[in-house]
Amino acid sequence: MSVIPFDEREGTIWFDGVLVPWREAKIHVLSHGLHYGSAVFEGERAYGGHIFKSHEHAMRLLRSAEFLDFTIPYSAAEIEAAKDLVLKTSGLADAYLRPVAWRGSEMMGVSAQNNTIHLAIAAWEWPSYFDPETKMKGIRLDMADYRRPDPRTIPSASKAAGLYMICTISKHRAENKGYADALMLDWEDNVAECTGANVFFIKDGVIHTPLADRFLNGITRQTIIDLARRRGFEVVERRIRPDEMEGFSECFITGSAAEVTPVSEIGPYRFTPAAMTKTLMDDYTAEVQPKAVAA
Q: Which pairing describes strands 95-103 and 198-203: parallel, antiparallel, or unpaired?
């Protein structure tokens, strides 16, 4: 099945306050964001015409830019309105949205304090991140070679484009070996996250997940922790050593794209997707659906 390249699709993209034809949404090759990674973005999902946690994503986008020392020239409310317009214009009820902000091309060098800050928002159809049949069986993860860097060396709380360089490399290496993704450790060799998703483990009815102070604290991650505690499940956020994975019975990953995806294998460790994972998958599916408004 052929995939249409993203620069050849039809539709419109919100670009600096104006809807422009999809194929005309272009930037200059000397944009600072391309050369120096001064760009931030969000990945969001719409279900039934409603963008899940749109406000939280808009606020995180603004914070991410602040971590990179630039200010997006739109408020959270304006960003949310723009996303709603893009979704409505797309004609899609269920979609993936990608807001992205970056430094422009006025100055080319490490310092670019006077560059224009641009913002664009696109939406497109997005099926399950992983094949549905494979997802229910649990995906297989490799162990990544690269570590998540020390937060003293990077703005780890920002969803910054440059921080995904080692994620792309790690995911490519995993896929080339037949895995769906890779699990990354932090610089002290504790379990951290996957290349674009957070990770959870289950043992004796208790959910364990790495402390999110060394990588992005995902909005889906926060949602799952809330849903689990509503269920009365105990959730422990802590440092997890790789050899502890041998003692966990279930494992799943979370993210706007991945939603809640069971894991059957991480390197030499094996897991069996079971009741608690299935319950949280179902709870998340119910949570993201638009809520009926009482008359």
A: unpaired
Conformational region of residue 196, where left means phi above 0, alpha means psi within -120 to 50, and beta covers everything else: alpha
Domain ranges of the chain: 6-124, 132-288
Query: Average pLDDT over the chain, rounded to whole?
Result: 95
The answer, yes or no, to whether residue 1 has pLDDT greater than 50, is no
Is 6-124's fold the same as 132-288's?
no
Q: Are strands 44-47 and 198-203 parallel, antiparallel or unpaired?
A: unpaired
Over residues 94-138, the pLDDT tens digits come to 999 999 999 999 999 999 999 999 999 999 998 665 555 667 799
CATH of domain 132-288: 3.20.10.10
CB 276 within 8 A of CB 250: yes
Q: Catalytic: 159?
A: yes
Catalytic hit among 159, 171, 278, 291: 159
pTM over 0.70: yes
In this predicted structure, the answer to whether residue 157 has a pLDDT above a threshold of 60 is yes
Strands 95-103 and 44-47, by their bridges, are: antiparallel
Q: In whole angstroms, what is the distance from residue 278 CA to residue 235 CA?
A: 16
CATH class name, domain 6-124: alpha beta
